[in-house]
Structure formats: structure tokens, C-alpha cells
Amino acid sequence: MGRLDPDFSGETVVVTGGSSGIGRAVALAFGDAGAMVVNADVRAESKDPDASRPTHEAIREAGGEAEYADCDVSDPAEVEALVDHAREYGGVDVMVNNAGVYTKTRFRDVTPEEFDDVYGVNARGAFFGTQYAANDMIARGVDGVVVNTSSDTQGRAAWDHSHYAATKGAIRMITRSAALELAPEGVRVNAVAPGPVATEIRKGWAEEAEEMQPEGETPGLPHRAAEPEELAGAYLYLASEDASYVTGETVWVDGGGHVA
Ligand code: NAD
């Protein structure tokens, strides 16, 4: 099979949660494609056991441009400061709202505090990440793009996921609603819905994934977890000129998990 050869040179791409997992793979791919990458996370060090250096250092070492910016996306003031900061590099052209947290808790046991913590990072982070980036793009007269990280749980119920799934369902509608209002302004907003991906966040539900295809039962999808690198292409496509007529869409990258 062939490969695409994306070119984002001259563009500034902000990736939240870019230190680890999917965000790291996306940041590295944008860096490889020539973008100036700002990795916005609460920790520069990667959670990935096989990552020998922080994302921005890995991009620079490969000949690209990148920096780390400390940012807690659950605080809208920090997200606004992040978008302002990106003006040092000409302003954000592509905003990837990817940072996310997960806790495994039965519906009956979720506390208001736990709900707010998970919702604050996943949903509020994506909402204001989209809003501030879009306002800045419009102010600068740039046809920018936002790509949000949703999840297969945006449309599929799963045990112990209710509060997390609520945040991902919210991201689906943040993406669609923002796309509707921002299309006339030239800003596209899309989402990627990963299925199970082999990252640190997933450790909590790994056993559940093991049970995805119980022996002796009709085989279902997905038959394996993805590597983070297998997600990156969807983000680059949605952020690219090749997707110029695609907005409000969620691209499922889930090994077919949602088709059943
Ligand atoms: P991960 O834990 O490997 O990476 C998440 C990154 O987000 C980390 O670097 C972490 O430090 C950062 N982060 C956490 N809270 C933050 C905050 N408040 N502000 C800024 N950064 C913060 O997880 P991942 O699997 O790479 O997850 C990335 C996204 O993909 C999340 O939105 C997650 O919900 C989503 N997702 C993951 C899977 C999966 O199976 N791994 C499936 C569907 C969706």
C-alpha cells in the first residue's frame, strides 16, 4: 500500500495532550510534515514507556520545529493564553484538542467531583480550545482548522464509561455545532473517534478490551487495539487542504468497531 506525503510547512499546529499516546503520535507526524508544533500538556515528559525524550525534543532532533507549552486545558484562561502564545509563531493554523483523561467507574458510583474533573478536561477543554482558536483564526483572517479527539464511546455505551462517554458525546456535538457556525467564517471543525489504542490512558480498560472477542463467540470488531501512529493520518487529512469541503464530521478510526 502507498503512503500520503503531507506538507504543513509554514503552518503552526497546536496539539493538546501531545506528550503521550495519540497526541504524541499526531504531534510527531505534523512535525515530520514540516509544521511548527506546539505541544500543550500538563507534563513535558511522556507517559509512554518507550518514549526516550519529550515530544518537542524528538521533533527537533528529527529536524523539525517544536516547543512545549505548559497548559491545563480544563482552565479556559490557560487555553486562551496558549492560543495567544501561538501568535509568536504566526498564530494557530491547526488546533488539535486531544488532551483527555479517563477513570473507570460504575455509573452508580460516579461522584459530582469525578464527573466535573473528567468533563473539565475532555469537554470544556475541547469547547474552549475550539472557541479560542477559531476566534483567533477569524481575527487574523486565516482559514484555520480544528480537529477534536472524540472516542468510539461518543456513540456506543460501555460499562464503567458513563461520565467519560458523556464527555465524548459532548465533543461530537461541540464539533458539529461549531462547524455549523464557523463554516461561513472559513474555519472547519472535525473530530477523530479512536477505538481502542495502545496508550497509557487505556491501561484502566485493558482487561475489558481483552474480553472484546471472547473465545467461542462470533468474531467482532475491532480484533486488536491500534498503535497511536495509526491514528495520526486521519488528523493530518482533516487538517489538510485535501479536506477543504469536510466539516462537522467525525472520522472513526476504530478498526470497524462502530459498524456492528
Ligand atoms: P494518554 O494518557 O496516553 O495521553 C493523554 C495526554 O493528555 C497526556 O500526555 C496527558 O498528560 C495529557 N493531559 C491530561 N490532562 C490534561 C490537561 N488537563 N491539560 C493538558 N493535557 C492533559 O491518552 P491517549 O490514549 O493518547 O488519549 C488521547 C485522547 O484520545 C484522549 O482524549 C482520549 O480520551 C482519546 N481516546 C483514547 C482512546 C484509547 O484507547 N487510548 C480511545 C478513544 C479516545
Q: Overview of this structure, please?
A:
By secondary structure, this protein is of the alpha/beta class. The chain has a single domain (about 10-260), classed as 3-Layer(aba) Sandwich (Rossmann fold). Helices cover about 35% and strands about 15% of the residues. The chain has seven helices and seven strands; from the N terminus they run βαβαβαβαβαβααβ. It has a seven-stranded parallel β-sheet, with helices on both faces. The chain is globular, with a radius of gyration of 17 Å. The model has no long low-confidence stretch (mean pLDDT about 95). Nicotinamide-adenine-dinucleotide binds near residues 73 and 197. Nicotinamide-adenine-dinucleotide binds near residues 42, 47, 72, 101 and 197.
What's the helix and strand layout?
Layout: E1 12-16, H1 21-32, E2 36-41, H2 55-61, E3 65-70, H3 76-85, E4 94-97, H4 112-140, E5 145-149, H5 162-182, E6 188-194, H6 206-210, H7 229-239, E7 250-253
Parallel strand pairs: 1-2, 1-4, 2-3, 4-5, 5-6, 6-7
Helix pairs in contact: 1-2, 1-7, 3-4, 4-5
The site of nicotinamide-adenine-dinucleotide (NAD) has 31 residues, from helix 1 and helix 4.
Short description:
It is built from 7 helices and 7 strands; from the N terminus they run βαβαβαβαβαβααβ. With 260 residues, the chain is an alpha/beta fold.
Structural class: alpha/beta
Mean pLDDT across every amino acid position: 94
Shape: globular
N-end to C-end Cα span: 26 Å
Q: Topology as H/E string?
A: EHEHEHEHEHEHHE
Oligomer: single chain
Low-confidence stretches: none
Write out the CATH superfamily name.
Answer: NAD(P)-binding Rossmann-like Domain
List bound small molecules: nicotinamide-adenine-dinucleotide
**CATH architecture descriptor name:** 3-Layer(aba) Sandwich
The biggest beta sheet is recorded as:
7 strands, parallel
Name of the top-level CATH class: Alpha Beta
Number of strands: 7
Strand order of the largest sheet: 3-2-1-4-5-6-7
Protein name: NAD(P)-dependent dehydrogenase, short-chain alcohol dehydrogenase family
Family: Belongs to the short-chain dehydrogenases/reductases (SDR) family.
GO biological process, one term: fatty acid biosynthetic process
Organism: Halogeometricum limi
